[in-house]
Queue: 2 jobs
Job 1
Amino acid sequence: MSTRRHFLQKASLTTLALSLPFSDSIAKALGQQEPKVLRVALMGLGSYASRVAEAMKDCSRAKLVGVISGTPSKIEQWKQKHGLSAQNCYSYENVDQIKSNKDIDAVYVITPNGLHKEHTLTLAKAGKHVICEKPMATTAQEGQEMIAACKAAGVQLLIGYRMHFEANTLDIVKKQRAGEFGKTLFFQGLSGFVIGNPSQWRLNKLLSGGGAMMDIGIYSINGARYLLGEEPIWVTAQETKTDPVKFGEGIDETITFQMGFPSGATASCLSTYSLNYLDKFFLSGTKGFAEMQPSTGYGPIKAWTHVGPLQHSHVTHQTTQMDKMAALILDGKLPLIPVDGEEGLKDMRIVDAIYQAVKTGEKVII
Amino acid sequence: MSTRRHFLQKASLTTLALSLPFSDSIAKALGQQEPKVLRVALMGLGSYASRVAEAMKDCSRAKLVGVISGTPSKIEQWKQKHGLSAQNCYSYENVDQIKSNKDIDAVYVITPNGLHKEHTLTLAKAGKHVICEKPMATTAQEGQEMIAACKAAGVQLLIGYRMHFEANTLDIVKKQRAGEFGKTLFFQGLSGFVIGNPSQWRLNKLLSGGGAMMDIGIYSINGARYLLGEEPIWVTAQETKTDPVKFGEGIDETITFQMGFPSGATASCLSTYSLNYLDKFFLSGTKGFAEMQPSTGYGPIKAWTHVGPLQHSHVTHQTTQMDKMAALILDGKLPLIPVDGEEGLKDMRIVDAIYQAVKTGEKVII
């Protein structure tokens, strides 16, 4: 009896530990080590940083501990709102001092695209892991420099691909890899919204590196790659501009682009700053199909296949992303779809090719 | 009183005539002429001719009265099944004798694409109105010759654009013209199915004039034009072939193509013989959108906008088409979207441009 009772007690404790969210008290009760937490500072305090900070409140493996900003008043607000310690807050002038800060493990770079390279290089030199928002840079050349710098410094470089951790997306990727759609021969990605304030950094070539393509077109590029499970071998692209005042030199308003893949699959995509209602992925195979709409928005992703709708419940994307990135950095746990610098570089090479194809009017071999 | 009574009688009779389907008895009661009926012969007795013949049983303005076929046994079957008189049945050898046949008004040419021109010229010379299945020809040059021949002979040339009479399609076209979607800047057309029997005429260049583009890609071309309400000014296109045995020289398996329009709108389309589940139109504007899926299939068209689903009930497309074409030929009643030779020629010019763009890899200005 005592043996059976002991077994039941143990089983019950294990069941409890497995069925509840992992908590310190249970871990302690089981005599396990506390799970390590990734201590993160956010660099660039725009609206997306606020979204990430809010999402991180629900993280179990990542914790917001600091900020880097060029605006002192913002730092004050963030310190108060998020209970940040003063010594974990930096300006762009003194950010190199972060090197000696033992309380910060990683920095999430959420500054304008045109500053990603410079900021990543600074942080790598300071020995911090870098999570860099997508697009990782404005050109593949910059991306390569960032990868090299992080490698030389022995820090990780991750790109903020939140969709790579989203449950519906991963389910469709798994189904595709398992052959449930047959041979997937066509991907369609439509990425667009009507951009507001014409004076924002996204419409400033030096800061953005480009227009809609850099901001949202990259979702269709990335989506084509993870849903088809191949890398493109050619790209063609066509640009249209209806408002050359709002969308100046080097800022693409609308680009349609196509990619060809080794299997014979093609992708046909739209990137635009002039139309709403555009956040759609469609994957077509010889045995079935998958659709996602919205496919990359911040809210719940709606996905269905020829069999029926997927039912994965919504978790704030940035919460999952930061927890999984912590697990990657701290435990080396690799995700199904990579989120490293090389993954970011693959997209940047395609962005480069698209701009080249627009310029030359010719098919660009990648 | 007698004046008022007379007025009411007259009004009641008029209301009856307007509110009920037009019938011979009411027409006779009102002392009107019987509505004229278009007496049609079908040329080329393949499966689509059978579908048209079946649909015409429900027509009120068009009647199947004859056939033209190269297969005597088929003529026998059709004579019996449809109660056709022997003098209204022709072979390809004696079809020119149709000139003296006063019981046939028009011929619907449903032969392989590569024969459309020759057959249309023969029928025009015989003084018969021609309804020619789409694509009207295999090149714009052929289309122009057909238009010229019919004009010279004083007969009408209509192209079998059944979607131009479909209720959901027309509703979306009207909404677009009324500005309900705002400025429409993007059209996407996906047209594809997996083609079976590799020895069919559709995969024989001489008979088909091309592959999927001629057969179904033309739906996306045409759909882009009627949903955007503009004519393209440029075309780009990319070809992919995964099965060069089944899809030989000159038979396109898969082509992605794009069109640019004067307003700045773009169309991004897919034409393929290698994927099912592809019959989708998407029209995106600054104030809303429309989707159709299926968008051109023979069955019920499913359409919805940002406001909600459209509810027009299904009527067999070919029934409506033949009744409306009879009204066009007999009464000169023009449809909202043209179905004449010029309309067909516009599509053929784009098909020519797409093939040229595939060949040269360059943007083709139309």
Job 2
Amino acid sequence: MYKSETKIRVRYAETDQMGYIYYGNYAAYYEVARVESLRQLGLSYKDLEADGIIMPVLENYSKYLAPGRYDELLTVKVTVKKRPGVKIVFNYEIFNEADELINIGETKLAFIDTASGIPCRMPDDMAEAMSGYY
Amino acid sequence: MYKSETKIRVRYAETDQMGYIYYGNYAAYYEVARVESLRQLGLSYKDLEADGIIMPVLENYSKYLAPGRYDELLTVKVTVKKRPGVKIVFNYEIFNEADELINIGETKLAFIDTASGIPCRMPDDMAEAMSGYY
Amino acid sequence: MYKSETKIRVRYAETDQMGYIYYGNYAAYYEVARVESLRQLGLSYKDLEADGIIMPVLENYSKYLAPGRYDELLTVKVTVKKRPGVKIVFNYEIFNEADELINIGETKLAFIDTASGIPCRMPDDMAEAMSGYY
Amino acid sequence: MYKSETKIRVRYAETDQMGYIYYGNYAAYYEVARVESLRQLGLSYKDLEADGIIMPVLENYSKYLAPGRYDELLTVKVTVKKRPGVKIVFNYEIFNEADELINIGETKLAFIDTASGIPCRMPDDMAEAMSGYY
């Protein structure tokens, strides 16, 4: 399976008055982490969209294990457990600077051909880049 | 069970370049909807915090059934299916102006005593306000 | 000149760990307020975009006079002092529930024809709707 | 004067349906850039808050010169032109990957002693770290 890792620094904008990362902001961390995980494979989500494929999110799940805090340099570990087909599932584990697991998440995305609006298979270059992992 | 309904107008800030509501922004809609659902019971989450109880989110799940779009006046139907104890679970159904179900979600929150940091039971006024529904 | 008023409830998502509204979130309040001010004239920014005109922001200024706080029902007073031409300037005054002025702002926007990418004049229906105020 | 530079990758979350960075999101870029500019001086805004000083924003100004776009690795150049006293002013210039200046901004912040709520002077370690630049 494919694994990668990304660092994200918590912004003040992302905290709330509880002094924690607002629970809704983890979705953006997941987005950053999965885009970087693709980039580490030599793939660009931006180019994918330019080539006529979008990847809308179908489902998202988060479990908040411990508060995330301002200015921490988080480590987001991303795993794609199953070889993607017409859908792709990313799993995330987020660790704080004390290496404590603070959040786990899972996002399922579709591949959609923008011209037709119809679901399609993972693009060839992604299939190739991922082929060594499954 | 307790049911309520809230209207939310989609902001431009909440869209992304796909032309949809960014998937991470539904969490804020859920927050607005559950706070308004409490307000309709005569309860204020702001006062709850002032009284020394916070309600951090433990888990959040979203399923995206159809794109949400700019400027639509969404209807968020909130349900609390089970009588809350030391945790409370809110379920959401979001409908667009065409009355199409575009999103469903579920959030589990804890009651935490801010002084001790320890989970506690639902406050008395909330228990009383909800008592008629279970 | 044209004046209007909009109410906005502060979301938890919009607070930061200082316990205030994060300074960057006022821009979204301004957006909501100016879109509502147009709606009160019978104009829809969504329809404007559908008709091929976008209104990107050219300049934005905010002065933060007092902290904005969670759950307050803010009143945003919007003024368009000068009759718009190829640009439009919105001024904002934001009051909290104690009727204290907490924020003032100003946003300058252009009218851009999306087909050509070229600045254009205010659309006719907007000119007509605003004609009584200047 | 003190100058520094920070790189920020544009997130999908930060775009809007115009296909640009939403105008309100530049404030968070400014925040990141000024915090990193302090970090490059050996200063931590997080520690500053822990030491009992907050830096609320008093004024913010943005000029949008060209659209910012998804996935671009922006360069934010930060300048503190005048030696800070009880206030500090940060100026920003944001360049896209084509080295085009897309945004300029200015933020004025106060130093507030959290215990008293009263404005105070820049903390000693900051004064020392900045002393070589003025």
